[in-house]
């Protein structure tokens, strides 16, 4: 790693981070070992409470999501499971002398399902190391980023310094399906001058897509399979409707219809059939089918506009299908109703982070567009808080043998530690 244009104190900060390498790997391994799937985040959040309280000596809050406080917010997405017993963990540092600008570091503790576990080289929640890679579900998305902001703060503490401004560390739930965890933090009044989310972007995020989840529920006409022409298959109709809906995906991907951020992307818009449930009996024409579908859309579009376009296309497809007289369908919404956003690259937090990266790493910070949704939207669209994503290099995200680069995680930690020193300023700790 080249190191240029940093002063003696910043060199000490970089060295202090590197001295935490083994501790960083140990903490990441511990976090990955907790299978923090939707509704099962608590044991991992208990680790976060311990680290924030015992290791970093922060003021710690366990924030339960109160759905009554967020359900009328424009950023709310319909929840999928109860919030009882599930919390965000927030650690707050308040300096004894305020000199600089405040910052939120945000990360999500929840992970997605592992898929067919037989495809994994080793059990997905038993992390293992292969060279520079730490492998396991959630290693990249996004527990390594959480470790980076923890260890950046810890390195400064080890040197006898504290940030000279408020620093809020957030470990939130439900980023992978609603974002209501981050929204609840915002509604509860946790604000700062800027936010950095340590998602595994391998660069600096410049924009992100909107994402809509919907369920397409079809009822058909059952019949004995030997007399299938007397029935109407809900499964066949469901698949035909989704195949027709892909024509809308193709239209949005046309160059003339693209948002400028995605003008050179090979295929920015994706409609994904994530789950399918249907049928009752092998020898019966199926009477029901449900498709769970994810729709990506461009930042300038609203959720309401996308719903209207999708519903109009589905209605036209259904009426054109020969089975429409003996079947019916409905669209329901649960999970993401997330608007996209484009990030103002002239914001001070952006220019400061880019400069810090260049000084510490010795090259320009790559700029990346993101084809998914992140919690950055809440801060940018609803909080008046400039936010972006910057985190480690990883791979197989949502896939098999998910991994993160340990060297990259440590580079991110070094950049964040020096960034804190510059953005917040430093006090000698009391």
UniProtKB/TrEMBL annotation:
Question: Required cofactors, per record?
Answer: Co(2+); Zn(2+)
Tell me, what's a Pfam family for it? Peptidase_M20
**Which family does the similarity line name?**
Belongs to the peptidase M20A family.
Q: Organism source for this protein? A: Pseudomonas fluorescens
- Peptidase M20 dimerisation domain residues: 209-318
This protein's superkingdom? Answer: Bacteria
Which NCBIfam families does the entry mention?
DapE-ArgE (TIGR01910), PRK06837.1 (NF005306)
Q: InterPro entries of this UniProt entry?
A: ArgE/DapE, Bact_exopeptidase_dim_dom, Peptidase_M20, Peptidase_M20_dimer, Peptidase_M20A
Name the Gene Ontology molecular function terms of this record: hydrolase activity; metal ion binding
Q: Does the keyword Repeat apply?
A: no
Keyword Zinc part of the UniProt annotation: yes
Please provide the record's keywords in A-Z order.
Cobalt, Hydrolase, Metal-binding, Zinc
**Protein name in the entry:** N-formyl-4-amino-5-aminomethyl-2-methylpyrimidine deformylase
Q: What is its EC number?
A: 3.5.1.-
């Amino acid at each position: 790693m080249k190191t240029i244009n940093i002063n003696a104190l910043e060199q000490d900060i970089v060295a202090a981070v590197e001295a935490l390498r083994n501790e960083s790997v140990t903490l990441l391994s511990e976090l990955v070992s907790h299978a923090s799937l939707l509704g099962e985040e608590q044991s991992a959040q208990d680790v976060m409470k311990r680290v924030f309280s015992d290791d970093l000596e922060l003021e710690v809050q366990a924030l339960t999501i109160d759905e009554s406080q967020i359900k009328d917010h424009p950023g709310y997405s319909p929840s999928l499971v109860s919030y009882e017993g599930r919390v965000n963990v927030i650690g707050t540092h308040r300096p004894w002398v305020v000199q600089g600008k405040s910052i939120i570091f945000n990360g999500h503790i929840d992970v997605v399902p592992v898929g067919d576990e037989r495809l994994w080289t080793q059990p997905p929640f038993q992390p293992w190391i292969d060279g520079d890679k730490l492998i396991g579900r959630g290693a990249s998305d996004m527990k390594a980023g959480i470790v980076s902001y923890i260890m950046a703060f810890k390195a400064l503490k080890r040197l006898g310094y504290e940030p000279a401004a408020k620093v809020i560390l957030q470990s939130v739930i439900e980023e992978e399906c609603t974002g209501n965890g981050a929204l609840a933090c915002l509604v509860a009044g946790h604000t700062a001058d800027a936010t950095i989310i340590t998602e595994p972007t391998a660069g600096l995020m410049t924009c992100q897509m909107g994402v809509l989840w919907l369920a397409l529920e079809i009822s058909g006409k059952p019949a004995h399979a030997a007399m299938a022409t007397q029935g109407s298959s809900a499964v066949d109709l469901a698949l035909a409707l989704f195949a027709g809906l892909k024509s809308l995906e193709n239209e949005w991907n046309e160059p003339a219809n693209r948002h400028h951020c995605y003008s050179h992307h090979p295929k920015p818009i994706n409609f994904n059939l994530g789950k399918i449930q249907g049928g009752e009996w092998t020898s019966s024409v199926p009477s029901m089918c449900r498709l769970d579908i994810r729709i990506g859309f461009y930042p300038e579009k609203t959720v309401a506009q996308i719903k209207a376009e999708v519903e109009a296309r589905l209605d036209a497809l259904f009426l054109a299908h020969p089975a429409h007289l003996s079947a019916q369908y409905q669209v329901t919404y649960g999970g993401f109703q997330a608007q996209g956003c484009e990030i103002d690259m002239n914001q001070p937090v952006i220019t400061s982070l880019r400069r810090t990266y260049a000084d510490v790493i010795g090259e320009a910070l790559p700029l990346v567009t993101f084809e998914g949704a992140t919690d950055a939207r809440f801060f940018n669209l609803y909080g008046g808080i400039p936010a972006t994503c910057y985190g480690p290099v990883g791979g197989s995200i949502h896939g098999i043998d998910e991994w993160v680069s340990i060297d990259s995680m440590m580079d991110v930690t070094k950049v964040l530690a020096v960034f804190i020193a510059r953005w917040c300023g430093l006090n000698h700790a009391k």
